[in-house]
Amino acid sequence: MSYENVNSKTRISTPHKLFYVDNTQETCRETKTFLGNAGFITHCYTNPYDCLENLFSKECDLLIVDYNLSEMNGIEFMKEAKILLPWLPVIIISEKGDIPLAVSAVKEGAIDFHEKPLNNDIFISKIKLILDKHHQENGPILHSLTKMEKRVFAFILQGKDNKEISVTLNRSKRTIENHRAHLMKKLNSRNVAELLKNVSQTGLIDFMK
């Protein structure tokens, strides 16, 4: 997998944090260099389960996943990732750029699909557009929440109650209640129904479909 040099027009001023998942170490190293040269902070994983474990502990603005993973395919992995972070934008890439696969990826929640080998300038431009659009639509909401509030928020969107969330996150029920109260106040919602109504207007709720 080879990459062309990224020209100065594709460089970004604000470093965004990307997660990249691929089977091979070599591809991960090349991709990290390629995206790093464009100004992105990139965490690469060859094991999708390692990536899932880090989605909450490390900030991630965009997830890029190769379809041909060994443990599961890229679409299956994307579904697992969106259980944790429903609003996380995901790009699926694949050496097989057939239309049915692309349609399936987007239908299941991918924000875009790209065929390998990647055209660097086009791919970087697409990433920038996706991040800009996602920030404009959801940035004010997500950036107002702490890391733990985002976790609780994600589980609320899945329909989990405080007890279920406390067990999953290994926190006391009282702690979860406090985080829930804080995020509800920040999102100007008195109850879950009002919360869902408010976030649906931003497009966040669409990630659950």
What brief labels describe this structure?
209 residues, alpha/beta, 5-stranded parallel sheet, disordered N terminus
Notes on the protein architecture:
There is one protein chain. The protein has 209 residues and is an alpha/beta fold. Helices cover 50% and strands 11% of the residues. The protein has nine helices and five strands, in the order βαβαβαβαβααααα. Helix 6 (147-157) crosses helix 8 (173-186) and helix 7 (162-169) crosses helix 8. It is globular. 30% of the residues are buried.
Order of helices and strands: EHEHEHEHEHHHHH
Distance between the termini: 34 Å
- Residue windows where pLDDT falls under 50 for at least 5 positions: 1-13, 205-209
In angstroms, what is the radius of gyration?
Answer: 18 Å
Q: Count every beta strand, where a strand is a DSSP E run of 2 or more residues.
A: 5
How do the strands line up in the largest sheet? 2-1-3-4-5
Mean pLDDT: 82
Q: Which structural class should the secondary elements be placed in? A: alpha/beta
The portion of residues forming beta strands comes to 5-15%
Main sheet: strands, sense, barrel: 5 strands, parallel
Ordered list of secondary-structure elements with their pairings:
Blueprint: E1 17-21, H1 25-37, E2 41-45, H2 48-54, E3 62-66, H3 74-84, E4 90-94, H4 99-107, E5 112-115, H5 120-142, H6 147-157, H7 162-169, H8 173-186, H9 192-200
Parallel strand pairs: 1-2, 1-3, 3-4, 4-5
Helix pairs in contact: 6-8, 7-8
